[in-house]
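Entry: DNA-binding MarR family transcriptional regulator
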Amino acid sequence: MTSSYARPRPQEVARVTSEAAELLEVLWGRASTAPVSASQLRVLFILEHHEGINLRTLADALGSTPPSTSRLCDRLQAVGFVERRPGATSRRELRLYLSRRGRAFLVDLRSRRERALQSVLEHMPAAQRTALLEGLAAFCAAAAQEIHEDDIADARTA
């Protein structure tokens, strides 16, 4: 990179971050997500943090339609990763939960992904790993804040 690291412009950092994200996708692709697709994996991640949501809420979170989301959940239920249970107040409403097998899959997937990353990070000098860790922690905090603010704004307009 030809620019100075002392005062990188946001667009330059965005470009390098985007490149890093693409490389992460390649590394993570090697740590296969089989037997689930990328869309199904998103469902698992959402259910991990919002267990017991209904299909409509899940569809909204995915930016999808309830029928498409239902088909995703059908396939996840068929491999034993998702369970549908009747709601507490309405027996007609189904709530979605990760199964024990679904949780085990996510633990294993994360472990494989971390091993792939660790292999790359071992080639970096310790000082650069420290700087990366500090930068990523700040990035995660800023991204979480922005996502949270967007959620609040969405709730106000709903």
